[in-house]
Amino acid sequence: MINIDSTVSQAPPKVEVSNLNFYYGDKQAIKNVNLVLPKNKITALIGPSGCGKTTLLRCFNRMHDLYDGNRYEGEIVLDGQVNILSRRIDPIEVRMRVGMVFQRPNPFPKSIFENVAYGLRVRGEKNKSFIADKVEEALKASALWDEVNDRLKDMAFTLSGGQQQRLCIARALATDPELILFDEPTSALDPIATRNIEDLMDGLKKQVTILIVTHSMQQAARLSDYTAFMYLGEMLECDRTEVIFKQAAQLRTRDYVSGQFG
Amino acid sequence: MATSLSPSSTPLSPIQLSVLQRKRSSNLFAVAGIFSIAIALMTLIALVLQLFIQGFPKLNWQFLTSFADPEASLAGVLAALVGSCLVMLVTAATAVPVGIGAGLYLEEYIARNKFSALIEINVTNLAGVPSIVYGLLALGLFKYYFNLGESILTAGLTLALLVLPVVIVATREAIRAIPSSLREAAYAMGASKSQMVFDHLLPYAFGNILTGVIIGLSRAIGETAPLVTIGALTFIAFLPDSPIQSGFPFISFEWLKAPFTVLPIQMFNWVSRPEPEFQVNAAAAGIVLLSLTLMMNSIAIYLRYRIQKNLKW
Description:
The structure holds 2 protein chains of 2 kinds. By secondary structure, chain A is an alpha/beta fold.
């Protein structure tokens, strides 16, 4: 009944999560999660509010290190080589390989150009023409170049909400990350801007692996190759998106994707 | 329809009565508010007017460019004006970097525990310490322990102590006002802590920090007590060495060691004399002091406007 796409099932893993636990102080928010993100695919994290989707996403670039009292257990291994949760790995190193786009567009109060160039500047890049080329490339990849190429010096907040979010995607792309995390990237946007971002992400997976948290099941169904369903901090099920939406193994997953609860 | 709603034709419904009563108490509060602000404004206007009426005739070029003199008509504020400016220069140059550094450390770097909470409470309390106490501290520390003498440097450092808590508190509040989403955005790009601080926090907070600095300096420029404590002179008939020299190395710091007087002390000296001519001089010096404060404030407002215009989140 379901057309199993052999290329999807054979995609090599980019990231492997094993036995991941995460604690906010004494409170355990992530419980023994195991997950594989296939390379150059979009994996969606779905589940009811408060189930730990965003908490899990923020483990992938060690965002939790910014606040006191947070603790990880288990492994997130990149390319089968580096456990990015290891104490020997600096979170800055992780964030240089893993980009992130936030729920609300959060461009810096700087010019459009400087927003995109910031990642390169952080890395100490001084070559002006290299930076200019990279900025143009990133803005083209995020489908923003045609709208802003004549006003790169304008402040980023002069852009519309959807444009700002695409600017944030360009900012993440400029440093060629291997994995980009999207935390409900369209929840603050109107349907047309949402559509633009989704089209954009679909094109991006040629060059980068994507993990997206979404509260919209339609978005997960439209966009993702794989879907993981989380409930109360646990990963109940992860499979190809069409399997999750059409014949999920677990009753709770079937109830959630069919809108019985949420 | 309209007639049925008018209060004269029908008694008020309970809802209308309730609205009427609550509107009445709102209006009462507004009147009380107007009265309060009138008291504050009238006092200020009366003070400034009195100062101007008394001192304005005396305000001329001769007054600004003459030294103190036993003859009231020949006396001027040159030494005090230059003294005030130089002391403020020292105060700003020390209080601003130290205050911003301390505020930044307290807000971004310090580990949150009981000890840091204790420091925070005390820094906030420092802003309320009477200025004469700072004068006593400076007398012991700068004048006797470090042997800096009754100099511009001592005065500047003393006032810097006074301004420091204001700058620290302003820095912390300015940094706290920056949304955490911008911090996270910077970190997510792979920025280190110092890159986040210098590329983002400080530039975004600068406008509000500046406001705090100016408020602090405006308070310091009118201070008399701590400077009297460390031994400011009241009669000076010479200027400190110029900071810019004609010969090598062109810049001199000799002025830091010079004795000094400042505008409020000069004013106090004149007010305490019996001759009415000196009262006029004191009022004129008051106008000069007021103008100096006003000038500082307007520069701050302009700079903040220029900076904030480009900040939005």
